[in-house]
Every structure is written in C-alpha cells, then in structure tokens.
Amino acid sequence: MFRRISLFLFTVSFILFSGCGDKEELERETLEPSPLPVTASVAAIDVLYEVISSTGRVSSRRTQTLTAQIQGQIVQAPEYEGEEFSEGEVIFRVASGQHASNLSAANSEYRNAQALYQFEIDNYRGEITDGVRSMLRQTTGLEAASASLSSARTQYGNSAVSAGFNGVISDVTAQDGMTVYPGSPLGTLVDPWSLQVEVNLDERQLARCTPGLKAFVIIPSLNDTVLVGEVRSVSPVIDPSFRSGTVVVDVPPIPNLRPGATARTEIVFAEHEGSLVIPEQAVLIRDDRPMVFAVTDGHADWRYVTLGPAGRGFVSVTDGITEGETVITSGHYSLAHGAPVAVVN
User: Coil, strand, or helix at residue 331?
Assistant: First the structure.
C-alpha cells in the first residue's frame, strides 16, 4: 500500500514539475522579441571612385541644318523622320523653272562661244601662245560664257539639298508640293552613331575636370543602363552669369539611345584601389560619430567606424569593419545594439 501511495505521489510530482518547465520555456519564447527584417551588404575590397555628379542630355556630335537655297516647289522630300541618308545623297529637291531655263540658256551660249573660239584658233595666223589664247577667249565671248554657265550650274545645283555625312533626318518641316524660299528650314540631319553628353558644372567642379577622364553615364529611360564614357572637352571659360562651364563627355552608341535623352553623369576625378567599401546607406550618425550595425550571430552589433573617401553610392572604411563582415543597409534607423535581426535581401 505504501509503495502504491509513493508511486502515485512521484507521478503527480513529475507531471507538475514537467508542466512548470514547459510553462517557463513558453514564457521565455514569448518574452524574446522576434527578429527585425533588414537588408544588408558585405564589406568588400574594391576600387572606390570619387566622382562629380551632374545631369545633362544626350546630343549628337554632328548635326546639319537643312535649308532651301532657292525659291521653288519641293519635289523630293524624306518619306518619314528617322530615314537614313548617306553622305552626298539628295534629301530635298526644289524645282525652279527659272533656274532650269537659265542653265539651258547658259549651256547654249557656252557651246556657241566655244565653237567660235575653236574656229579662231584653227584660223589664227601666227604662233599661238598663252597670251593669244587668253585674248581669243575674251574676244569670242568664251570667258564670259564660261562664267555664266558656272553661275547657272551653281544656282541650279542649289535646288538639291544633300547630306553632308551619314545620318538620319529629323525635325522635317517641308513636304512635297510646298513652296519654299531661300533660307526656309527643311529639316535637320543628325548623326546618331556619334553621341555625347553635355553637362554644366560650377567653377569648383570644373577645376577638377580634364579631357580624358573616365565618366559613368546613366540613362534613366533605358532602365538605368550604365555606359562608360570619356571627357572630351572642358570649357576654357566660365559663364559669369551662372559661374559655371560646360563639360562634354563622349559616350558609345547603343540600341535605342537617342539624342535628347536625359543622362546622369559621374565624372571620375580620383580612383582608390584596394579600398574596403560599404554602401553609404549603411552609415548612421550617432553622438556626432559615424557608425554602422554589423550582423553578428543574428544580432545587430553597434560599431563606430572611421570613414575615407566616398563616391557612386559607396564609402571606404579604414577602421571598425573588416572585409567579409555584413553591415545593415536598411531597417536600422531605430535599431538597438544586440537586437535580433533577420537579413531578408
């Protein structure tokens, strides 16, 4: 009987003890905060670029403004904007009956004068010297007829407006059948394969720029495509009204990149090889000192850091972080040291 009572009491005690342990463990799990979701990046050795940032527009290095040289009616024009033309190819043609008539009359006059000149040469008695030839050209009217023909050809040739280089037509303002006058705008020929970006920099930034510097060019309209260009020219003067100057960056052509597109430029004025870099958004200021949160065993580890040069969204670290450590880049503004975190990127 005593053994039965003892066994019963032991069983009850074990159940009570086990229940208390489970309750304490549940309470601990309930009291421990859930990890906070954060994004993070790994500190790595890389090249850090110090840059001058500005925004400009893509343009063509070569453009040709096409204008009418004579009065007349358009009888040839591009079929559509963006049509390609080769160097020397006629883009617009202006018909003028008066110029055609003048050219025909000048040709006839020249042929008559030439025949008379040849007759005089054939029947000249004496030695035919250069002086004699010059005299006969004057007396037969060949000299004047030649000048008239040259002028008529030039005027008639002005009826054709040709491409000065290989390009595409844009800003077409003249169509077949339109009457135009000397100086009337017809369109613009653009070289889409020779592109550049022009940016305005203030005088302090301008002092850091020299031709030949590398430049990163970001095209927002092409999903932030990054191109590597080169500074071609730096303005030798500063605009006194704006205290700025123009820098031209050559960029390589790529599909769908067109003149007029917005471009963000980052001109590299210094390169730092072998830098330990982290994203700039990882750095916070606490007590007037830069710091970051490293991720250590799933918890936020408060670190004061010493920073070096920065550029292109990254900053170099000279003390406080080592290569390969993970630093938090977002979700860290209200973090405390030791808080549990979960990297979600």
Answer: coil
The answer to pTM > 0.70 is no
- Sequence-separated (6 or more) residues with CB below 8 Å from residue 240: none
Domain boundary among 169, 189, 209: 189
Q: What is the CATH number of the domain that holds 236?
A: 2.40.30.170
Would you give the end-to-end CA distance of the chain in angstroms?
66
Check residue 97 and give its pLDDT.
60
Residue 7: per-residue pLDDT? 44
Single-letter code of the amino acid located at 120 = E
pLDDT given at position 334: 87
**Residue 150 confidence (pLDDT):** 78
Please give the backbone phi and psi of residue 237, each rounded to the nearest 5 degrees, phi first.
-130, 160
Cα(213)–Cα(34) distance, integer angstroms: 50
In a domain, 120, yes or no: yes
Domain that holds residue 322: 34-50+271-341
Alpha-carbon distance values, 32 to 63, 212, 299 (Å): 69, 58, 13
Domain harbouring 85, CATH code: 2.40.50.100
Low-confidence ranges of the chain (pLDDT < 50): 1-12, 14-21, 26-28
| 3-class DSSP state of 254 | coil
Domain count, the chain: 4
C-alpha to C-alpha distance for 151 and 145, rounded to whole angstroms: 10
Cβ neighbours of 343 (radius 10 Å): 16
Domain of 287: which CATH number? 2.40.420.20
**Whole-angstrom Cα distance, residue 183 to residue 164?**
17
* Phi, psi dihedral angles at 135 (to 5 degrees): -65, -45
